[in-house]
Predict the 3D structure of the following.
Amino acid sequence: MKRALITGITGQDGAYLAQLLLAKGYTVFGLVRRSSTAEGAALRLRWLGIAEQVTLLDGDLTDLGSLLRVVAEAAPDEIYNLAAQSFVKTSFHQPHLTGEVTALGAGQMLEALRLQAPRARFYQASSSEMFGLVQATPQSETTPFYPRSPYAVSKLYAHWMAVNYRESFGLHINSGILFNHESPLRGLEFVTRKITDGVARIKLGLARELVLGNLEAQRDWGHARDYVRAMWLMLQQDKPQDFVIATGRTASVQDFCALAFGHVGLNWQDHVTTNPAFLRPAEVDVLTGDAAKARRLLGWVPEISLEQMVAEMVEADLARLAAPGG
Ligand code: NDP
Ligand code: GDP
């Protein structure tokens, strides 16, 4: 029976990845940082009904000692480093913290791997945000990077550290350059979930309008369940390497609104307004990924369409809000 350690297990991807690995018979450990609301920490794991099936170990990405202890305790065959300050907008407000966690924290996990479990296989959660001001379209593993936020700069540091540790120490380290992926478990601050939550509130008569920022921004949106499968596939390869994971289909924030409002029979133009408060100091205008390498070497293709995902997210938010205490 294989053992896996997931940092960021309480986040969107961590929860779905834990579910996937449990279904494959893994023993799953997760790194969790201390919070004054401990009961809230495992919210997503509870939503998936797997909170009792994983072992949570306390530590923080910025505390190497805690990572060494956790890696020793979990004795993992596979490590998935998903923990990060992952919200772009916040990274403009808290650039130092973002660098400490998302950049240097990843370096700490690589050190923990090298010192404590050098035979384990390692996944680093890299991001399409690293392409930022895109230098070519679509973006693949060979496209030059041009980060546009402290978050993206931090991810770029972590990505090159992953590559460097692989090349320097011969470790089985893989960097997955994942394009945006969403689900009913996406944080409410991200635009997709903000929209589906807003649609559900408006449909249920709990709100009248939804205030957004840049409606023209375009993303290549996939489903988190498809994307965690790609993470696992990467670690099953003999040769460690980097992969772009994307659908290849780009839609605008406006398109996403049209789909989400349309799902409940509403017209988005009747409800969406904009406010400059939701704009970023520097924007990533459009991202489109080319996942041909993943298709070729991993046999990975996305199975959930944008329309199916939007429907699932809106339905989940409707159910959540309609539930007692929702
Ligand atoms: P989330 O924001 O949902 O989850 C982030 C996780 O990191 C949470 O479990 C959080 O814990 C944990 N974390 C934050 N800071 C620390 C810390 N100092 N020590 C330990 N744990 C910490 O992100 P996603 O699940 O969406 O994404 C997973 C990873 O993939 C992230 O690294 C993200 O940047 C990256 N990524 C995501 C994409 C996407 O579209 N979702 C696209 C490309 C990359 P807590 O619950 O306590 O806050
Ligand atoms: P990101 O790609 O990691 O930054 O994911 P987000 O979901 O936070 O943002 C995706 C795009 O939606 C960005 O270009 C944002 O500028 C745009 N956007 C427009 N309105 C909003 C909003 O109200 N909130 C967020 N989070 N993003 C918005």
The chain has a mean pLDDT of 97.
